[in-house]
TrEMBL record:
CDD domains: CAP_ED (cd00038). This is Crp/Fnr family transcriptional regulator. InterPro entries: cNMP-bd_dom, cNMP-bd_dom_sf, RmlC-like_jellyroll. SUPFAM superfamilies: cAMP-binding domain-like (SSF51206).
C-alpha cells in the first residue's frame, strides 16, 4: 500500500482528499508511554490522529488535581484537545502506552479546509462525533448511578478496563478509585452469580 492509501485507511477518508501537498506535510511520530503530545495552555500547532496505542486527555482543576477528560484508543481517532484549534490547548494529552501519532501542521490543514469541500465535510463529521461522545459522557455523569457509569464505560471503551489505571478511569467517571473498585467487584460477583445460580 502506498502512502496515500495507508493514510486514507488510517483516517477512514477517500484518497481523493489527500492531495500531494497535504501528504508531503504528514509525519508519523512515536510517542512513548508517559510522554505528552501537548500540554494544557500550549499553542496548538498540529492536527493529530492516533495510529496505535492509548492516550488520554486531562486538565487540572481549581485544586491542581488531574481530571481525566477523554481517552482515545481506536486507530484514526483524533488526538486533539478540542474543537477550537485556534487557541491554546485546554487540556494535556498524554500517552498511557507506547503510541504512534500521525500529525499534520495546523496551518496546512486550515488552508485546505478553505478549498477542499471533502476535507471540510470530514472535519465536520469528526466534530459532530466528538460532540456526541462528550454529550454521552455528560449524560452518564449526571443521570447514571456509579454502577451504570461503570457499565457504560465497559460498553463504550471495550478492553480499556484491563489496560488503563483505575485512577484515570475513576476520574473520567467522576468517582474515586475505591468506588470504582467496588463496582468492579460487584459486577464480577453478579456475573458469577448469574452463571451459577443456586438450585
Amino acid at each position: 500500500m502506498d502512502m496515500k492509501g495507508y493514510v486514507a485507511d488510517i483516517l477512514h477518508v477517500p484518497a481523493s482528499i489527500l492531495t500531494d501537498d497535504l501528504l508531503n506535510e504528514i509525519e508519523i511520530h512515536a510517542l512513548p508511554k508517559g510522554a505528552f503530545l501537548i500540554r494544557q495552555g500550549e499553542p496548538q500547532v498540529y492536527v493529530s490522529f492516533l495510529i496505535d496505542g492509548i492516550i488520554r486527555g486531562f486538565f487540572l482543576d481549581a485544586n491542581g488535581q488531574e481530571v481525566t477528560d477523554c481517552f482515545a484508543f481506536r486507530t484514526g481517532a483524533p488526538a486533539m484537545p478540542g474543537p477550537d484549534i485556534t487557541g491554546p490547548s485546554p487540556i494535556s494529552i498524554e500517552a498511557l502506552t507506547d503510541s504512534t501519532i500521525l500529525t499534520i501542521p495546523l496551518s496546512i490543514v486550515s488552508y485546505h479546509l478553505e478549498t477542499n469541500m471533502e476535507l471540510l465535510k470530514y472535519a465536520y463529521n469528526l466534530l459532530m462525533e466528538s460532540t456526541k461522545m462528550h454529550w454521552e459522557l455528560k449524560i452518564a455523569m449526571y443521570q447514571y448511578t456509579a454502577r451504570e457509569r461503570y457499565q457504560w464505560f465497559l460498553q463504550t471503551y471495550p478492553g480499556l478496563i484491563q489496560k488503563v489505571s483505575n485512577k484515570y478511569i475513576a476520574s473520567f467517571l467522576g468517582m474515586n478509585p475505591s468506588t470504582l473498585s467496588r463496582q468492579r467487584t460487584a459486577l464480577r460477583e453478579k456475573l458469577v452469580s448469574d452463571s451459577y445460580p443456586e438450585r
